[in-house]
Amino acid sequence: MRTALLSLVTVAACSTAAGSAATTARPDQTVRVMGVGGGTSLTMAASDPSATHALAFSVQQVWLALPGAFDELGVPVQTLDPVKHRIGNEGFTAHHRLKNVPLSRYIDCGTSQMGQNADDYDVRLSFMAQAMPGDGGTTKLITTIDAAARPATYAQDYTQCTSKGNLEARLIELVKAKLAR
CA–CA separation, 125 vs 91, rounded Å? Predict the structure, then answer.
């Protein structure tokens, strides 16, 4: 019974953590396990890895500033969609740092005896931004980060990491600095 429950919980957790980094909300999932003598259920709350930032500039101004900001962060741009004003990379491997900044400043992948896992593990990272019209000529910049890590020295599955909000904040700082020039 416990093995069946653990397997179902693992499958449900993976189904919400994997996939595209969409900006739409993910629904909660409930897993019910029935067995001899009754059953049990587990509801897992959905998480939305996106954040929205309001900028007092036009979409076109923000869009023009984004490639340079991504470059300064050390995020290699793989997606550049001028129609949807979407930019970023939906899957690259980072080792220890982005540019000269330790990954642990941006994401939390847990700790081990060696310190912050983000600084020692191989990290699969997705970081995307989309500029959309906001109220009164402003721009909504929606950022989405998704990361998973595993030890570089031995075989182990990837485990999900969480954003500390610093990469998103640094992108906003860089965009604002470029627009202030």
Answer: 5
